[in-house]
Amino acid sequence: MIDFTLSQLVMRACAVLLISTVHGFAMAAAAGALGDAGPRHDGRLSIDPLRHLDLLGGAVALMFYIGWAKWVAIDPRALRHGRLDLLLVIGVGFAAIVLGVLLLKFGRPFLLPLLPDTAAATAFALIQTIIEVGLWFALFGLLPLPPLAGGHLLVAVMPKLRDRLPRVEVFCGLFLAGLVATGWVTGALAPTFQSLLEFVLGEDVRM
After folding, report:
1. What is the DSSP string of 147-181?
2. Is residue 169 classed exposed, middle or buried when 0-12, 13-18 and 19+ CB atoms within 10 A define those classes?
3. Contacts for 162 with CB less than 8 Å, ≥ 6 apart
4. N or C, which end of the chain is more exposed by having fewer CB within 10 Å?
5. pTM of the model as a whole
6. What is the DSSP track for the chain?
7. Residue 167's pLDDT is what?
8. Contact 166, 173 (CB under 8 A)
9. Vertex 188, ends 185 and 192: CA angle to 5°?
10. Integer Cα distance of 50 and 33 in angstroms
11. Residue 205: per-residue pLDDT
């Protein structure tokens, strides 16, 4: 059962803001490095969380741990290798989250002894929340459905879809929120998530 206490909601909110920023910045930086300056002009090459936060995706994550960041508009025509580079941009976004949670995991043993007992317990819980929410973001984001990062795979296959996405993004988001709320996403992705979580934590995890 998901914990809806105030402390847990605050921790999940912190996790959503951090993860959205890491993911959005990484994808924008990758797109820029590959030739598309659009995300930089859109303000996505920023560490301001509000530029990367998707309100619906963030709200869903507050309730169910699973959510998504704001869609990063990328023009495949501006990329150095065209649509193939979209795959690399998606991979960079995924890797940025995984590397981020690995950094937190390895840094936690050095941080906690420096804190008083109460603060250490809070920090441990916060880092654990960031790790779990982050891995759900990374895994869920690979699905080829907008406004998830994996939605760029559809653009790679059907380039004309890019200009239509802004008109249907809200409806797609509501559809994804419904899938998460019904438990379909957690049921379908739980085994993969558990394997990814065990890889990051380096220990057996019982769901």
Report:
1. TSGGGHHHHHH-GGGGGTHHHHHHHHHHHHHHHHH
2. middle
3. 75, 76, 155
4. N
5. 0.92
6. -----HHHHHHHHHHHHHHHHHHHHHHHHHHHHTT--HHHHTT-SS--GGGT--HHHHHHHHHHS---PPP----GGGSTTTTHHHHHHHHHHHHHHHHHHHHHHHHHHHHGGGS-HHHHHHHHHHHHHHHHHHHHHHHHTTSS-TTSGGGHHHHHH-GGGGGTHHHHHHHHHHHHHHHHHTTHHHHHHHHHHHHHHHHHHTS----
7. 79
8. no
9. 105
10. 23
11. 60
Q: Residue 133 contacts by C-beta under 8 Å, 6 or more apart in sequence?
A: 12, 15, 16, 19, 61, 65, 67
* Non-local CB neighbours of 6 within 8 Å, separated by 6+ positions: none
* Cα gap 207→61, rounded to integer Å: 18
Residue type for position 141: G
Do 25 and 97 meet the contact criterion of CB atoms below 8 Å apart?
Answer: no
C-alpha–C-alpha distance, residues 104 and 165, integer Å: 35
What residue type is 72 in one-letter code? V
Compute the distance between CA of residue 142 and CA of residue 91 in angstroms, rounded to an integer.
9
